[in-house]
Design a protein that fits this description.
CATH class of the largest domain: Alpha Beta
Strand content: 35-45%
Shape: elongated
Number of helices: 2
CATH topology of the largest domain: Chitinase A, domain 3
Distance between the termini: 27 Å
CATH architecture of the largest domain: Roll
Number of domains: 2
Order of helices and strands: EEEHEEEEEEH
Radius of gyration: 19 Å
Structural class: mainly beta
Length: about 160
């Protein structure tokens, strides 16, 4: 069976940047289960998995445009320090805006705090080492809910 639209696939993966730094991995955990072709993964990852079969081991290189997007300078803003009240602010902290957007502190100044609303992996070329562990048909319930049920998936 091949990974195609509406199949449930289970994969083990390790994600690295171009310098080889591990950004995420399923190593030591259950495989990642997802429904193929409905947007559960970034587009470049789904493209690279299309047509693969159980036992396949391969590399997928994903450009920012097919990953978490290119970094947009318009999403980087300076906010007055007073907007954060009296709490201590450090680089790397994340906050949710009034509009529900998550921003990351990238610079702490005396008067202003610089925040970035880009995804942390925006602008980063992604390198996945992947092994396909399992492929099966998605159930009608899984397709209507948009996620995997049972082992490795969501439990209602």
């Amino acid at each position: 069976m091949q990974i195609t639209k509406h199949k449930v696939a289970a994969i083990h993966y390790t994600l690295t940047d171009n310098e080889g730094k591990v950004l995420d991995s399923s190593s030591g955990r259950e495989p990642l289960y997802y429904i193929h072709g409905i947007g559960n993964l970034i587009p470049g990852m789904e493209d690279g998995l299309e047509g693969k079969t159980k036992g396949d081991k391969f590399q997928i290189k994903v450009a920012p445009e097919k990953g978490y997007g290119v970094k947009e300078d318009t999403l980087i803003q300076q906010v007055p320090r007073t907007a954060f009240g009296t709490q201590e602010i450090k680089v790397g902290m994340q906050f949710q805006t009034n509009r529900g957007q998550v921003v990351t502190v990238t610079k702490v100044g005396l008067e202003n705090i610089t925040v970035d609303a880009n995804h942390p992996l925006a602008g980063v070329e992604l390198n996945f080492a992947v092994e396909v562990m399992e492929i099966r048909e998605a159930t009608a319930d899984e397709l209507s809910h948009g996620h995997v049920h049972g082992p490795g998936g969501h439990h209602h």
